[in-house]
Every structure is written in structure tokens, then in C-alpha cells.
Amino acid sequence: MYLVNLMEQKISKLVDIFLTEKNIPANASMRMDIIAYTLNRVQPQYVTSARGVLHSYDDDTDKNNEILAIISKASEIIRRRKETTALESVPLIDTAGYYITYPSIMGNICSSTKFEKIEEALVYAYHNGTLLQGYGANFPNAAIVSKNVPGKFMFCFMPTKTESKDSVEIKLDIIIEAKNYKKHQTTLSFNLEPSFYNAGDMPLFQVEEVDDILLEN
Q1: How does pLDDT run across 7-49, given as a tens digit for each residue?
Q2: What does the pLDDT look like over 156-206, one tens digit per residue?
């Protein structure tokens, strides 16, 4: 048994048809934004079996026209944004195969004395002594803690291709540097099972919230 929202596949196909017929250039990031915008504005249609999938197929032209109207509006809104800025680019999988998908890591950094959130710091993540590649320009490594969002850091990493399907234990060394505080190092351990991706897929990440990290003066 499985649980599937049929609208995801339907809207994905309608978006591709719309972009092709209207001759609208759209990169992977724009396409996913249009799909997400539309899915958030239509009623989901869930099924739990293959029979449910078969019974769900119809040619509801009026319904399709309603969805296409939402897609058109989504396209207008999203096209107003810059289409090729580094911050909006979404890295995709280049080659089909098994990949180790590291979890996205979120945490807080505070002073060990006053428990105030640190306003400026650099947070590095290493695996086997190598700095992990961040997932696009939005997630650099080192992560930057700034006054805009004091104490907060988040990592998202590019998956690493592997030849094995077996689960592995991954240890990430987290190193934090902040002015007026001692350099801090901690290690996070995760048991990860490789995921199979096709070329052009967008990785799926799990979020891990870690305990607050306290820095000493």
C-alpha cells in the first residue's frame, strides 16, 4: 500500500505543457516554483492503491482549465523574479546512481555564560577532514551567523555519489569560530542509507535539529 497525491503528477505535466505551448523559458528552479505554487492552491487527490489510480483518470476539461489558470498566474509571478541569479539556482543530480544524502542541519549558538545568542560566527562542516560542498549559493560552507538572525545556522549539502547501497555511519566535524570566543569543535554522527537518484532529480533532505552549542569566552 502507498499514499500518493495524484495532483502532483497531473500538475507537473500541465506545467510542462503550458511552458511549451507558451514558449516560456524556465529553468529547473522556476519550474519547481510554479508547480509548488499551483499545488498549494488546488485540492489534493490522494489514492492508496493502483485501483485508485485507474479510477481517478478522467478528462475534466473545466478542472484542467482552472488549474491552467493558476499555472498562468504562477508563471507571471515567478517570471518577475530574476531567472538566473546564483541565489535562485537549484543544483540537480548530474548522473544517475546511489548517493549519500546528508541531512540538513539546523542549530543555535549561544554564550556559555550569559546564554545570549552569538551575533557573528562562522560554522564549518567537515567529513573525513574535507569541507563538504554546500547545496548551491544559498547554503555556503562555512555557514554564516549574522546579526540579522543571531545564533542561527543551517547547513544543506550536495549529496555524494557512492557505489554501495549499504547504510553507512557518517561523522561530521563541526567547527565554530567567533570573535571573543574560543574555537569550538563537536562531532555529529548519522546512520544514512544511500538514495537512488536519476539525472536531473532534485535531492530530498531530512532536517536534523541539533542541541544548542555553547561557546566559551
Answers
A1: 888 888 899 899 889 888 776 667 878 888 898 888 888 777 5
A2: 999 999 998 999 999 999 999 999 999 999 999 999 999 999 988 888 888
Task: Report which of 157, 108, 98, 100 is spatially closest to residue 131, judged by C-alpha positions.
Answer: 157
What three-state secondary structure class fits 120? coil
- Bridge-based pairing state of the strands 213-215 and 121-127: unpaired
Query: How would DSSP label each residue in 25-90?
Result: ---HHHHHHHHHHHHTTS---EESSHHHHHHH----HHHHHHHHHHHHHHHHHHHTS-SS-GGG--
Half-sphere CA count of 107, side-chain side, radius 13 A: 26
CA 108: distance to chain centroid?
20
What does the block give as the cell for 70? Answer: 493558476
